[in-house]
Amino acid sequence: MTKDNFTTKKREYKHLSDVQRGKLEEMARLGTYTQKEMGLRLGVNQSTISRELRRGRTRQMDYKHQYYDCYIGDSGARVYKENRLHSKSKGIEKYSARFFDELVAALKVKKIKRIFSVDTFVHFYKKNHPAERVPCTRTVYKIIDSGDLPLRNIDLPMKTRMRPRKLTPSKPKGKNTKNLGRSIEQRPEEVLTRESFGHWELDLVIRKKTKGEPVIITMVERKTRMLLTKKVWSKSAEAIQKHVLQMIQKQGTSQFESITTDNGPEFSSLSLLESTLEAIQIFFAHAYASWEKGSNERHNRILREFLPKGQSFRNLTYNQLSKITNAINLRPRKILNYDSPTEALSKEFNRIKVA
What is residue 215's predicted lDDT score, i.e. its pLDDT? Predict the structure, then answer.
């Protein structure tokens, strides 16, 4: 038997009963109690007393035919019931129940089968169920935090790892002193704007820094965010060059115009690909400037959801890595107008055919 571990408690609200209204009427008639004392005697907040006194305020006439205002419990109860009849449901009740059922089902699945985040599921559901009332992304997060759903922050891995975003971009701290090839400063402007297809970012994912430990080559296309991966057993410069060439040829050389990577020694031979594939240019980012290939860094972080740090890649099969890569490429992305990288790549191919 499993048990949800969480500390968030669901709020419980209690309305005044007829007995409490009768006691409140008596205390209000005596006129010797403050609103705070009334609240303490009835076990409710002072604000509740204040609202109830306004709700049940009734104008009466005394024996001298002079008007005066007083609180009457029956009047407060009548106004309360009328307000309830005209009130609309608030919170989770005013939204589609089916939406929340499918949201929970979409997020509480095995990592390799989960393709939605909260935001992408909200937009996916709205698109397919336009007649239903669906909350916005921010409201869904508030409902999760309130404890009204069987979802917790631990079910949202990216939320528990989010850091405050920098207000101003950092500047590169180092220079390309190794001179492994073309500097990123020579890269065409169209690569930065992501307006053209075929510009990729390259990196390695290392799980354990142990000699002979396998690594994963990751490549991300900047416009469509398509991810390619390959498990290799050596991170020597010659091996990386060989396997990157194989990845390019398998995907199709026509889909590659440039590759941007960092100055690591494992990429020192990468420029030699230009002699084999004349249409491809290799660029190297500044030292200590990982954000210059931010798309790849972002996808490496997504990959860490499935393959956390500290464990060996030795038992990771090629089939498992392929399934993980497909799961990532099937995730809808806000940056792609909620298309997945697979869909974005397909649209790009269709656009190229038409052109």
Answer: 94
Picking from 155, 171, 202, the residue at the C-terminal end of a domain is 155
CB atoms within 10 A of CB 244: 24
Same domain assignment for residues 130 and 245: no
Q: Please tell me whether residues 132 and 78 are part of one structural domain.
A: no
pLDDT tens string 128-141: 999 999 999 989 98
Residue 123 · residue 332 · CB < 8 Å? yes
Going by C-alpha positions, the residue among 160, 155, 154, 144 that lies closest to residue 10 is 144
Domain that holds residue 69: 18-86
The 10 Å Cβ neighbour count of residue 61 is 9
Task: Count CA atoms closer than 13 A to 262's CA, side-chain side.
Answer: 20
124 Cβ partners below 8 Å, 6+ apart? 116, 332, 338
Please give the residue that has the higher pLDDT: either 122 or 3.
Answer: 122
Rounded to an integer, what distance in angstroms lies between the CA atom of residue 171 and that of residue 287?
A: 11
What secondary structure does DSSP assign to 194-247, as a single string?
A: T-SS-EEEEEEE-S---TT--EEEEEEETTT--EEEEEES--SHHHHHHHHHHH
